[in-house]
Amino acid sequence: MTNLWEDLETGPNAPETIHAVVECLKGERNKYEYDKDVPGVVLDRVLHSNVHYPNDYGFIPQSYYDDEDPFDVMVLVEDATFPGCIIEARPVALMRMDDDGEQDDKVIAVPAEDPRFDHIEDLGDIPQQELDEIDEFFETYKNLEAGKEVETQGWEDRQAAYDAIEHAQDLYDEQFA
Predict the structure, then answer these.
(1) What is the pLDDT of residue 133?
(2) Which of 9, 49, 55, 112 is deepest in the core (most CB within 10 A)?
(3) 54-86 pLDDT tens trace
(4) Does 67 show up as a binding residue in the annotation?
(5) Residues near 41 by Cβ (< 8 Å), separated by ≥ 6?
(6) What is the set of domains in the chain, with CATH numbers?
(7) What residues of the chain score a pLDDT lower than 70?
(8) 104 is in an annotated binding site
(9) Is 35 marked within a binding site?
């Protein structure tokens, strides 16, 4: 059985075009995580706060980030896909975030094959309302979990996302190659 984290390439042209493996769905409170030992997507928990994912959320294959997890990616979508769906995506921004003292940044991407997102190429192309909703979600989604503290730390452009993806690929190679 294919392991989506280890066997799937980072992307057909990483960091410009990546694969995003969806775990959590736009509009839902379920926090799914890919379990490489199963391998498959399992329900990790239901968010304690009354918030829902503003877009599909998951990870980038063959990546490893400073929080010792696969690198997180949020893909802007019109409609939710499904857990385990692989989206060919274009990174357009990076959200800096601290999660309980660990750097836990998020790549923001758009589907490469959805013409509704062709005009979004960089941070400045994302509507401010969309950025505000993503920021608000991550600032508050762990508020009701005992002892959890999250701080969003601002937005950076597409090049910062590319650099962070390359960093995550290097960490993956150092740890697992």
Answers:
(1) 97
(2) 55
(3) 999 999 999 999 999 999 999 999 999 999 999
(4) yes
(5) 23, 32, 33, 34, 35, 83, 84
(6) 18-176 (3.90.80.10)
(7) none
(8) yes
(9) no
